[in-house]
């Protein structure tokens, strides 16, 4: 997925605790709108990773 390795630890912990992750990709305007919509639901975390590009084959070993 191209996520920073330090973030993956937090995301794995959320999933293991029966949480979930919402991921979005789009233009800066689309991302601002998505962030605003998600913020209304008071998430535990709301991270933004600008400039991240997906890797060709994202596996747990490569993330």
Automatic annotation (TrEMBL):
The lineage of its organism: Bacteria, Pseudomonadati, Pseudomonadota, Betaproteobacteria, Burkholderiales. This is Uncharacterized protein.
């Amino acid at each position: 997925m191209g996520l920073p390795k330090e973030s993956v630890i937090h995301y794995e912990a959320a999933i293991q605790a029966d949480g979930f992750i919402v991921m979005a990709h789009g233009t800066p305007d689309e991302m601002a709108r998505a962030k605003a919509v998600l913020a209304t639901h008071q998430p535990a975390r709301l991270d933004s990773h600008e400039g991240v590009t997906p890797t060709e084959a994202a596996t747990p070993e490569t993330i």
